[in-house]
Amino acid sequence: MNNNTNYIGKPVNRVDGYAKVTGGAKYAADHHARGLCYGVVVSAGIAKGKILHIDTTEAMQLEGVFKIFTHENVSGLAWFNHSYKDMDAPPGKHFRYLQTDTITYSQQPVALVVAETFELARYAASLVKVTYKADAHVTNLTGNLDQARPPKGKKSGFKKPSSRGHFDKAFTAAPVTLDATYFHGAEHHNPMEMHATTVLYYKNGSITVYDKTQGILNTQSYVKSVFGLSGRKVKALSPFVGGAFGSGLRPQYQLFMAVLASLELKRSVKVMLTRQQMFSLGFRPITQQSLSIGSMEDGSLQAIKHEAVSGTSQFEDYVENIVNWSGMLYHCKNVKQSYQLVSLDTYTPLDMRAPGAVTGMFGLECAMDELAYKLNIDPLELRYINYSVEDGSMKKPYSSKALRDCYQQAAERFGWSQRNPEPRSMKNGHLLTGWGMATGMWDAMTVPARAKATFTADGRLTVGSATADIGTGTYTIMTQIAAETLGLPMDNVTFQLGDASLPYAYLEGGSATAASVGTAVQKACMQVRERLLDLAKDIPDSPFKGLSVAQVSFADGMMFMTETPANFIHLKDIMTLTDTGEINVTSTPLPNVFKQMKYAKNTHAAVFVEVQVDEELGAVKVTRVVSAVAAGRILNPKTARSQIMGGIVWGISGALHEESVLDHQFGRFINHNYAEYHIPVNLDINDIDVIFVEEQDDVVNPMGIKGVGEIGQVGVAAAIANAIYHATGKRIRELPITLDKLL
Amino acid sequence: MDQVAASVMVDQPTHTITLTVNKITYELKVLPWVTLLDAIREYIELPGTKKGCDHGQCGACTVLVNGKRINSCLTLAVMKNGADITTIEGVAEDGVLHPLQQAFIDHDAFQCGYCTPGQICSAIGLINEGKATTREEIQELMSGNLCRCGAYPNIVAAVQQVNGKL
Q1: N or C, which terminus of chain B has less Cβ within 10 Å?
Q2: Which of B4, B7, B10, B46 should we substitute to test contact with A (largest number of A Cβ atoms within 10 Å)?
Q3: What letters, b where the CB count within 10 A reaches 16 and e where it falls short, cover A170-201?
């Protein structure tokens, strides 16, 4: 049997590639309508206090300005806190835009100006005069560590820190010990597409919402509950998303603004935030963490203490898993962990690519490097010495863990065995070269997802789920899975997403989409297989009579008897001969929870980097990165490599470039634009070598998928900091490592 | 000639200009404060060109004006009266992709795709300039176009494949 419809694991091009290179991909702000008007948001100029007065007189005098929405004229919205809760809301009192005169954070939206054109709305917004009574604010985490307290409430996915054994005793007894404190400031997601929403208004009072989101059902349910609308009245779409990295996990305020204005004015409205306003959304929280590690002379870990304090807002307790990794990655009997929050006068932080792990693994993997130098043991060797086959915090084996292969393959590709451990040993004039390594770790999660499939008599398959593709490749990998499962050419398969009318899918985040939606898509296509076989049995003289679905195969548009492939029938013929117009199924995969409960489920990576530091200028260049990733089955090595590469670029960015700088005098992020908030440009990124290590896993899901969205970033910042130490002999424990810290 | 009217009633005179975008000539009545980017996106309704910062810091709005790459957000539409403009929608001819567009697909030189129109227009402009011969020169001269997804190595590979072959 000649099978040309095997796609899983092949490096096929993105199915949405044509749309993306021709300008055909329509993002949230790319939609038009007759009479479309534009909203521009006015942001608060203080961090804490009260609005005394909003003077809109001058702005309203302009012809073409329709309305200015403020807390003084917005009413009739939902009353209960629960109505403002979204799928990713942390516990607390969720913020209500334009419904209070209290200012809780700098850049809080205080007015929406709606006008006939964008330029007019922007100009009118500049004429809105807000007077405030400012109160003293607190935005400095490190100056307020005495205010640290345990987080309140619960959030799905958050694991409470867990201690075990007797840390204090073991640490005191350990012959070699290390104490180190690490810090990083806030980072904002800053996807290239600024948050935008276009609302199309129809005469019957219904609306179509094009939103920038990682979960279109989150958008729809928020709009329904806040504005008291029925599902029939709100169509929500998000076919293309210009990056998000977590910023689209919660409904952002442009959605609220656009819907508010559209319903009130009975017009279509577009609201796009400015780049400056992108710094008024959630962010990776400012975090200070301390590690204390005790070890024997031979490198075996005896005690690990990992404590972290992060900032949150005054109204919600954002939490993430920062310290937990220290109880999981290495074999160690005595572990102590704590995680606390300080309420600051900022907006609530928000999950940002590999939330928690990027922070905690930076601390842990830098500390391991520091310990390796104290012990005079190679940093890679120290990892081997403490390698763990079980998650010590849960006392469960890993469903799969090919981290040892990651270390070996990446080290070999990088040439690690040639390393002279001596700092400053690779010096060429004023250029210092350094080599560093670190481990990455993330969760292999499964979240609820359903899918529907429609197979029509023309041999076309349409599969859909209300998930998202934020650049991750969802469209492509789901098309691959569906096409291969039914043995159809990919050209005959369409995958739909970003539409709230499609079957349920949880938010796209946490690297869970490939595993979760992929399983639902495969299951839906398996159900179509069963229906096709049942139909084939009805055909007179059918050779398929009496066969079970396990005895047939699907490839090249045909169904075969697996034992005797000479017996086959074209799928189209099954439909025609049985007079079937279409087959419709919806799948609801139920994971084998009892089997999964016995295991820890994680992805791993080993990352090796080379840096070049200009000793005279303090400038750091990452000249080479080799990352080996163990993430179960790789559905598409081309798009998966892009994901890992992107994660590595994010790691470089976090290590060297990006930080939202708070000016505590004003309680405000002061570098709120792309010129001053540095992210890597093309010239900053050099050789990146990605290795996917073979890893089979029959626990996580039927296809063994573990997800690749976050793992590429985890550990990269530590590897760079470690390489900088090797190059310069300087331990920098505060990110980003800018040139001032090296001079 | 297509007519696109912008009827804004502020105390400013509107200007009547013509812009030839992707070989179609449009007559626009615009106020002087309308950027070329917004003229293309909101008045001519070609949304392929993207807004990523509106301050000339990201390159997402790059278009070709008389063959040269510019940030359309830093350009007022009235400054380009009579200009010949190519946006991403006009890069492919008769449905046949430009070699750079195909190279971007083959090298997976994008993820979310939002910076892609600007990257492709910028790369065409770069190739027209004939300045970039090495990988490092391509990297340097493409550094005005940010990509938050981090597709830079693939973007360079795509440009390298096409550079010098046009």
Answers
A1: N
A2: B10
A3: bbeebebbbebebbbbbbbbbbbbbbbbbbbb
Nearest chain A CA: its distance from B82 CA (Å): 22
Helix (H), strand (E) at residue A574: helix A571-577
Residue B10 pLDDT grade (very low, low, confident, very high; cuts 50, 70, 90): low
- Quote helix, strand, coil % in chain B, to nearest 5: 35, 20, 45
Q: Which of B33, B41, B105 sits opposite A21 (nearest CB)?
A: B105
Question: Does B54 contact A274 at a Cβ distance shorter than 8 Å?
Answer: yes
* Nearest-by-CA chain B residue for A194: B52
Q: What is the distance between the alpha carbons of residues B18 and B75, in angstroms, rounded to a whole number?
A: 15
Q: pLDDT class for A167, splitting at 50, 70, 90?
A: very high
Mean pLDDT value across residues A118-126: 98
Does residue B64 sit in the same domain as residue B109?
no
Q: Which of B45, B53, B110 sits opposite A275 (nearest CB)?
A: B53
| Last residue of one domain, picked from the residues B90, B117, B152 | B90
* B46/A23 touch (CB, cutoff 8 Å), yes or no: yes
Number of independent structural domains in chain B:
2
**Annotated active-site positions of A, please?**
710
Residue B7 confidence class, pLDDT cut points 50, 70, 90: very low
CA distance, residue A636 to nearest chain B CA (Å): 12
Per-residue pLDDT tens digits for A448-503: 999 999 999 999 999 999 999 999 999 999 999 999 999 999 999 999 999 999 99
CATH topology of domain A17-24+447-590: Aldehyde Oxidoreductase; domain 4 (3.30.365)
Q: In this structure, what CATH number is given to the domain that contains residue B14?
A: 3.10.20.30
Domain A144-187+283-445+597-741 adopts which CATH fold? Aldehyde Oxidoreductase; domain 4 (3.30.365)
**H/E element holding A688?**
strand A687-692
CA dist B65 and B73 (Å) reads: 13
Q: Which of chain B's residues have a Cβ under 8 Å away from the Cβ of A32?
A: 45, 47
Calculate how close chain B gets to A648, using CA atoms only, in Å: 8
Q: Across all residues in chain A, what is the average pLDDT?
A: 97
Structural tokens at position A360 = 């905690």
Instruction: Report the pLDDT value the prediction gives residue B5, as an integer from 0 to 100.
Output: 44
Residue-range domain boundaries for chain A: 17-24+447-590, 37-136+191-274, 144-187+283-445+597-741
- Chain A residue with minimum CA distance to B94: A22
Condensed to tens digits (0 to 9), the pLDDT of residues B29-69 reads 999 999 999 999 999 999 999 999 999 999 999 999 999 99
